[in-house]
Give the backbone structure.
Amino acid sequence: MSTSLEDILASHRTGRAVVMGVLNVTPDSFSDGGAFLDPAAARAQAERLAAEGADAIDVGAESTRPGSERVGAAEQIERLRAVIPAAAETRAVVSVDTTRAEVARFALDAGAQLVNDVSAGRDDPEMLPLVAERGVPVVLMHMLGEPKTMQADPHYEDVVAEVRAFLAERIDAAVAAGVLRERIVVDPGIGFGKRLEHNLALLAGVGELASLGGPVLVGASRKRFIGELTGAAEAQERLGGTIAACLAAYRRGATIFRVHDVAPVRQALTVAAAIAGQVHRGGR
Ligand code: HH2
């Protein structure tokens, strides 16, 4: 049974664990760069993610890994041209991972239903008005600085309080631009201008973000903090840590999980949801 956009937006009330599969159509993403640049490979991966139980597929054409270079809107659109319609043919909701309104507009016209903006509407002043005009949901993520420099020397007094205040301010900005409050998802931005201790505090403190009132998305999949804790140097070796991070965040109120390894995370969350006695329809 497929998950609707409304199911995803209600997940913080129902306890449903939503899995968002990652599809990077980039040459340089930190764990799967280059693998899905070819449209046929990207299409096959979209089908695979959906078959493994992804409720949503987040398609991105610009890497935001630490130190990455920007990719222009025209280049992003070229990379997405064949992939968004292919992903939209699966049972999953398609999300576009971009900070550029022009790219989001293209993707929405091509079948995407959700915008994932890691700049939370700060990169492009046209983004929040576009989201409002189209009536689509938006993910607003916290990032300190920008990808090129964000890991240089991140500093916080109280990372959970500061990230919460930032997200509250970006929710207000989105609502002021005409976005419906019920269509806003927030995300602490694991790894975006954060040291190990910041990432751990945010995962432990995700309940503070859930108290803002909407769904919380967590993107911990294969990230560096897992390697720092465990010594797993290669991103593909970090599945155990990814699952642990998702389950810990789920227990504390996050309900949407952006991951590369859909099948094992889907299975882990289905069991966790059943144990928690949560309402969980459509799991497998
Ligand atoms: N993380 C990445 C990209 N987009 N979006 C949200 N909302 N939250 C995240 O944590 C998040 C995100 C980075 O991961 P990945 O896509 O695998 O790598 P890259 O940015 O190198 O393409």
In short: The domain at 5-279 is CATH 3.20.20.20 (TIM Barrel). The mean pLDDT is 94.
